[in-house]
Amino acid sequence: MTTVAVVNAVVPFLRGGAEILSASLVEQLRKRGIDAFAVDIPAAWNPPEVLLDHILAARLMRLDHVDRVVALKFPAYHVPHDNKVLWMLHQYRQAYDLWGTPLQGFANDSWGVALRDAVRRADDAFLPEARRIYTNSPVTRDRLMTFNGIPSEVLYAPLPDPDMFTTRPPQDFIFMPSRLSAAKRQLLAVEAMAHVRSDVRLVVAGPPDSEHDGRVLHEAVDRLGLHDRVEVHARWITDREKADWMADCLACAYLPVDEDSYGYVTLEAYQSRKPVVSLTDSGKGVLALVADGETGWVAEPDARALGEAFDRAAAGRATAHDMGAAGQDRARELGISWDRVIEELTR
Questions:
Q1: Which of 92, 151, 300, 328 has the smallest C-beta neighbourhood within 10 Å, fewest atoms?
Q2: Does domain 162-333 have CATH number 3.30.930.10?
Q3: What burial class does residue 114 get, using C-beta atoms within 10 Å of its C-beta: 0-12 exposed, 13-18 middle, 19+ buried?
Q4: If you average pLDDT over residues 10-35, what whole number do you get?
Q5: Is the pTM higher than 0.85?
């Protein structure tokens, strides 16, 4: 029996999209008679100097007893193996496209530049070891080619359990599920509610990346007097809770900063026949699915413009189901399925 190790880098006690994808991939491989298991490499990103330790730890790991390694993201994809395939979710973006932005994360000095260059050199040296490289979106593919000159093939990630998501008649709220962080822009959504003229409400739910990320949202609700318009659930929510909120919502908001992929949230919304509200700078992966006026609404990254998009969603109650169904059709057109994923990663 073929043995496959799915290797991922994880922050202890944090479960996000990459962790869900790793577990789902293992489960789907096992369903097809493959002996698969997860190898989670503990990782932390602060202080930035630990990145070098993580790269070294990955290079020292040996998985000689498995037939194939499927590695997902930095620095897990540095693990050496003679039969390694990458399904790259993202590189360490602070060393690439986020360099020179507020999300850079490095000190902008000689040490920061040296650390950035070390991460890039490691990718240049070790990524070509893989037999094949897949990326989770055109954005990730293009970034890898632009910065490292390495070609790859797009392989979209399906939902772990699409049957969990159903639909019910829309209620008067927009649902925003995700980790609470500056990169996901829940604060902008709360601020947008101060400009909303309709009776639509906002429900934000997810675990905060830090105490600050949760506190800043509650403070904004207080400051703007939105207690009757905005709910903030700053905690881990169960899959059942998320599916119920998604089934009942009018639309779903997904507002990341230049996201690599389309994000599970968009697929979950469309599986629930709900349209998606997003932003013009949320990334090519997101906007490949979210088309303004067709499968949802796309606004400029500004509180007032986003508030107007929320009002457009409220005005489109009668067509919300059809727009969500159109989004699901778009996902099918992109060939998003587990059968294709397993076929590619095991061939």
A1: 151
A2: no
A3: exposed
A4: 87
A5: no
